[in-house]
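Purpose: get a first structural picture of the assembly so the mutagenesis plan has something to point at.
Setup: two entries, given in the order below. No constraints added.
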Amino acid sequence: MTTGRVFIATSLDGYVARKDHSLDWLMKQPQGPDDTGYEAFVETIDGLVMGRGSYETVKGFGTWPYTKPVVVLSKTLSQSDVPAELQDKVRTVDLSPKAAMDMLHAEGWTKAYVDGGRLVQSFMREGLIEELVITTIPILIGQGISLFGELPQDIDLELVSSKVLNENMVQSHYRVER
Amino acid sequence: MTTGRVFIATSLDGYVARKDHSLDWLMKQPQGPDDTGYEAFVETIDGLVMGRGSYETVKGFGTWPYTKPVVVLSKTLSQSDVPAELQDKVRTVDLSPKAAMDMLHAEGWTKAYVDGGRLVQSFMREGLIEELVITTIPILIGQGISLFGELPQDIDLELVSSKVLNENMVQSHYRVER
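Result (structure tokens, whole complex):
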């Protein structure tokens, strides 16, 4: 089975982006020398799965940041909407989280980086997330897109490790208990 | 000015209690040898300020756990509702957060322990919280009473310290930037 991994930053009040997807609150944080572990994390995954909102936000950056294949789950975006320069990097599929993971499993993926608040919520609800690395930014933004949402039942986690990055962020690594 | 301090446990998804105020998800966590710092924290405060919901929950424990004076902010609870054995420990006041802090300042309080999700939210909104110690429990409960709520604007925080307690909880200490 392909399992989902999350590597994401949230405000202390649990938002991954403002309602309009903006990340200004994150981008304004002072940079520091500490390794966030992002590169090492990306080495461990076969590719990314994201929703349309995250895809559009990342595409808006101008420079495509991912070297691994990206699968966009969307009911409305089709492959012909993807710009020519991204055609070999981005694939759109209209599948449920479970069906998408089954497809990726058949293709040989073992670990998928699941990105974006709404997608993480639906993957969590369906038990498709195995590990989360959450970097907590020292700011309250009051509203936005939450990392977590309603659940059919409690989910117990195991804390793998936690550390302070650049003296202002707390990065905690959790594993979902089965 | 009396400043508010928060010392609270939340689920990883940011809830301090279920909607019915229950804390079963917190109480079921394994106990460990590490000092949570609660006793040392209580030594620093002049007393507690809480809402009716928290007061009723704590009263339900049977044994009153606080040695410091408790002020309950409530529009509906009056002093005659407080049981005889708590009359010298609990005072009810029908005041706004700001007016309550002004009253406590006049009485010589410098640090008030502000407890309970709804009260912390309103004190945060009014800029009455100076420090927060948040212990994150490794569980997602999906819904409940949130520690944080909507805000008129972003609130920047400074991370004072963060540590792992009993191998499963992350306790982070924040100061509100002014």
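Chain A touches chain B at residues 12-14, 25, 124, 134, 136, 138-143, 147-159, 161-162, 164, 167-170, 172, 174 (CB under 8 Å).
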